[in-house]
Amino acid sequence: MSSTLHSRLLERAAKLNDELGGGSITALPIIETQAGDISAYVPTNVISITDGQIFLQSDLFFSGVRPAINAGQSVSRVGGSAQIKAMKKVAGTLRFRFSVIS
């Protein structure tokens, strides 16, 4: 499998217009792992080319935590640099609450 296959597939999620300044790519790739192993080829590739990940865990779901987000593994490389002050405040509070639940 080509090492560029996943990035080319994600690039197809965009329709960029050079006359309007290019644009950005928004895609929500969903990767199912075997026993939560994110070190396999596909998860590692997708993680390396995306700006963040939301990790969902079935054990959290079945214990009643909804959404079943593992706050410890979920990350954003963009984070606060792309947020207004009000959003940073709310995001910080939510991150803390999710980490307490997890």
TrEMBL record:
<dbReference type="GO" id="GO:0045259">
    <property type="term" value="C:proton-transporting ATP synthase complex"/>
</dbReference>
<keyword id="KW-0378">Hydrolase</keyword>
<comment type="similarity">
    <text>Belongs to the ATPase alpha/beta chains family.</text>
</comment>
<keyword id="KW-1278">Translocase</keyword>
<feature type="domain" description="ATPase F1/V1/A1 complex alpha/beta subunit nucleotide-binding">
    <location>
        <begin position="4"/>
        <end position="76"/>
    </location>
</feature>
<dbReference type="GO" id="GO:0043531">
    <property type="term" value="F:ADP binding"/>
</dbReference>
<keyword id="KW-0406">Ion transport</keyword>
<keyword id="KW-0066">ATP synthesis</keyword>
<keyword id="KW-0067">ATP-binding</keyword>
<dbReference type="GO" id="GO:0016787">
    <property type="term" value="F:hydrolase activity"/>
</dbReference>
<keyword id="KW-0547">Nucleotide-binding</keyword>
<keyword id="KW-0139">CF(1)</keyword>
<dbReference type="Pfam" id="PF00006">
    <property type="entry name" value="ATP-synt_ab"/>
</dbReference>
<keyword id="KW-0472">Membrane</keyword>
<dbReference type="InterPro" id="IPR020003">
    <property type="entry name" value="ATPase_a/bsu_AS"/>
</dbReference>
<keyword id="KW-0813">Transport</keyword>
<dbReference type="GO" id="GO:0046933">
    <property type="term" value="F:proton-transporting ATP synthase activity, rotational mechanism"/>
</dbReference>
<dbReference type="InterPro" id="IPR000194">
    <property type="entry name" value="ATPase_F1/V1/A1_a/bsu_nucl-bd"/>
</dbReference>
<dbReference type="InterPro" id="IPR027417">
    <property type="entry name" value="P-loop_NTPase"/>
</dbReference>
<comment type="subunit">
    <text>F-type ATPases have 2 components, CF(1) - the catalytic core - and CF(0) - the membrane proton channel. CF(1) has five subunits: alpha(3), beta(3), gamma(1), delta(1), epsilon(1). CF(0) has four main subunits: a(1), b(1), b'(1) and c(9-12).</text>
</comment>
<keyword id="KW-0375">Hydrogen ion transport</keyword>
<dbReference type="GO" id="GO:0005524">
    <property type="term" value="F:ATP binding"/>
</dbReference>
<dbReference type="InterPro" id="IPR005294">
    <property type="entry name" value="ATP_synth_F1_asu"/>
</dbReference>
<protein>
    <submittedName>
        <fullName>ATP synthase F0F1 subunit alpha</fullName>
        <ecNumber>3.6.3.14</ecNumber>
    </submittedName>
</protein>
